[in-house]
Amino acid sequence: MARPDDEEEAAVASGHPPSNGYLPVPGDAPAGEMSAETQNEPKTGCLALNGVSRDSPKAVSRALDRPKTPLAPEEETQAWLLPKGPSEENPGAENTLVPRTALSPRRFVILLVFSLYSLVNAFQWIQYSIISNVFEGFYNVPSLHIDWLSMMYMLAYVPLIFPATWLLDTRGLRLTALLGAGLNALGAWIKCGSVQQHLFWVTMMGQCLCSVAQVFILGLPSHIASVWFGPKEVSTACATAALGNQLGTAVGFLLPPVLVPNTQNNTELLACNISTMFYGTAAVATFLFILTVIAFKEKPQYPPSQAQAVLQDNPPEDYSYVKSIRNLFRSIPFVLLLITYGIMTGAFYSVSTLLNQMILTYYEGEEVNAGRIGLTLVLAGMVGSILCGLWLDYTKTYKHTTLTVYILSFVGMVVFTFTLNLGHIIILFVTGGLLGFFMTGYLPLGFEFAVEITYPESEGTSSGLLNAAAQIFGILFTLAQGKLISNYGPEIGNIFLCVWMFIGIILTALIKSDLRRHNINKGVANGDMKAVPVDSPTDQESKTILMSKQSESAI
């Protein structure tokens, strides 16, 4: 545990207080010697973060200007310190300053609220396509128009992802979350005014707003996990945050067929049922927006991990969004992951959008069971997501886990394809669950793998680009598979997806696994960092390298 403030002050000379949020770890030297060396000698005992010595004039100036706020009572402090004094495991690690880290209980509230309003947004994405034949009859439009209500989510994401990730990186988490929850509620209320047969354009307008809200939602799971959760729980937190979206898809498969049964011979009853679904969604979305206003904070008082401490130590003016984008596209492993994630997630979007059409081709009048099969697919995927997140937190085997899940998703897609027309719909519950367990379980894996191999670039930027690739592939796959289903049947459309998923397996195998964030956390936690003196007392900023070879190569 961290020492009390009075002990910290006694350990350091009054003329050179420690930086706010950093704890001194004294060696065997007396306090007086420590103070003299700190002020007059090369900085051999100071942990340098992000390539800048903590005792350089620039770093000290920034640190002294910060308000020194004591740890809040509700914060759960978990200060990780390097070993005191030199040892066999940590030679020369004397007088080291390391960041104070803490876990805030508020992180669970933020995770819950985000997951819930992400759920409502995903519900609004799928609520049309799972009963596409009902809405076709009510609005008297072709099936392609109903498909576009789903594809609108994918289309809006691609051009808006860059301003959305810029907003997240420069204006922060709270504003981005408020925009996502607020636009989601506004779009839901606009849909309430579209429950007349000639007002299809109004429901399209409401869906457009919900699709814009999605841009401010999909990239947040990895960002929330990294900013609020510790290194031993970050993958599980990311998977849990992504669960909200998956659960919303599951609810979207289940509720619309129940709330809006196929009563096209009674238009008034059909309009009443649609209205009930729309108003209920709007009320829940508004309540969650209010909770977002109350609960969301920008970040905890203290970083939850050493990797976040490194990032938060950088002044905001040093960040360049354009440079971050350029660095990501220069990373071959990230580009490969971008393509493979787009293929897998795009295939999932296509299957979800066209599931009703596939089922009804062989099982006429089974709208409710089509929704239940979709529910089974997503619920199994939620279990897969949580298990994959727990496995990553325990093993950190990102590439092996990602590749294994990709291969099993391909196998599940092949099995689902060739059991569609067997005439026994119960089989589709089993094969759909198998497909969903791996295909939906893959989604948070891609987020976390991207954060690891692109650290210290922004989590929001890498996640946003992954989602943009998913939307592009989703649009292309939905249009192509929909055309193939109409002309040749569901089997040919699914084989088309299988071919692309096999390509994704090959590209995933080529990704080089360089776990940069994990190496930083592991290096500090194990005390595997040492001080290297500068060449001269005046050259303090650029030549003090205080990281292990493993951590240095990671950055």
From TrEMBL:
Q: Which InterPro entries match?
A: FLVCR1-2_SLC49-like, MFS, MFS_dom, MFS_trans_sf
- Chief place where the protein resides: membrane
Q: Where is the composition biased (Acidic residues)?
A: 1-10
Q: Which UniProt keywords apply?
A: Cell membrane, Erythrocyte maturation, Glycoprotein, Membrane, Phosphoprotein, Receptor, Transmembrane, Transmembrane helix, Transport
Pfam families documented for this protein:
MFS_1
Picking any one GO biological process from the record gives: heme biosynthetic process
UniProt domain Major facilitator superfamily (MFS) profile: residue ranges: 110-516
Q: How does it sit in the membrane?
A: Multi-pass membrane protein
Which SUPFAM superfamilies does this one have?
MFS general substrate transporter
The organism's place on the tree of life at top rank: Eukaryota
List where in the cell it is found.
Cell membrane
Cellular component aspect of the GO annotation: mitochondrial membrane; plasma membrane
The UniProt catalytic activity note for this protein reads: choline(out) = choline(in); heme b(in) = heme b(out); ethanolamine(in) = ethanolamine(out)
Where, by residue number, does the polypeptide cross the bilayer?
Answer: 108-128, 148-168, 175-192, 234-256, 276-296, 332-351, 371-391, 403-420, 426-451, 463-480, 492-511
Which first-to-last residue range defines the signal peptide? none
Query: Which portions of the sequence form the region Disordered?
Result: 1-96, 531-555
For this protein, what is any one GO molecular function term? heme transmembrane transporter activity
Give residue spans, biased composition: Polar residues.
537-555
What function does this protein fulfil?
A: Uniporter that mediates the transport of extracellular choline and ethanolamine into cells, thereby playing a key role in phospholipid biosynthesis. Choline and ethanolamine are the precursors of phosphatidylcholine and phosphatidylethanolamine, respectively, the two most abundant phospholipids. Transport is not coupled with proton transport and is exclusively driven by the choline (or ethanolamine) gradient across the plasma membrane. Also acts as a heme b transporter that mediates heme efflux from the cytoplasm to the extracellular compartment.
User: Which family is this protein grouped under?
Assistant: Belongs to the major facilitator superfamily. Feline leukemia virus subgroup C receptor (TC 2.A.1.28.1) family.
Q: What is this protein called?
A: Choline/ethanolamine transporter FLVCR1
Q: Which organism is it from?
A: Sus scrofa
